[in-house]
Amino acid sequence: MRRYLFTEADRSTISEKRAEAFEKIEFNLKNKPFKTLRGNYQLEIIVRKVCIETWFLGNRNLLPRNRQVNKILSKYIEYFHLRLSDTEDLANGLEQNEGNTKEILGYKTKALFHEGYLREIFKERNLSYSKSRQKEVPEES
Length: 141
Prior knowledge:
This protein has helices at 14-30, 52-57, 71-79, 110-124; strands spanning 2-8, 42-48. By secondary structure, the protein is an alpha+beta fold.
């Protein structure tokens, strides 16, 4: 039986985050009556480069094809057009400095920028998005 653990790399590399996840799992299993996963269980760690919203933004059908009335969404598209590039590269220029002062459209982390972009797309489509109660991202426009 397969079990999946999803985690976000954000400021770490994917290999660093995967190693960190395995270390935490081993540490947490150390004091349990069962020291490892059951023999019929397989654990697969899936590391998202940034966040779940990045995956949602990768759904090319989500971005409205018609001209946007939402001025904020137009700014996002002007900065990074989702249909023309890989969403994993979205906001790559945002590597935070020591003073934590760098921003893109008011956001200081890639994950927050991606979430903001997704929220504006949802607004344009008269949908709502909540990180704590994620609705299914539409498959078709």
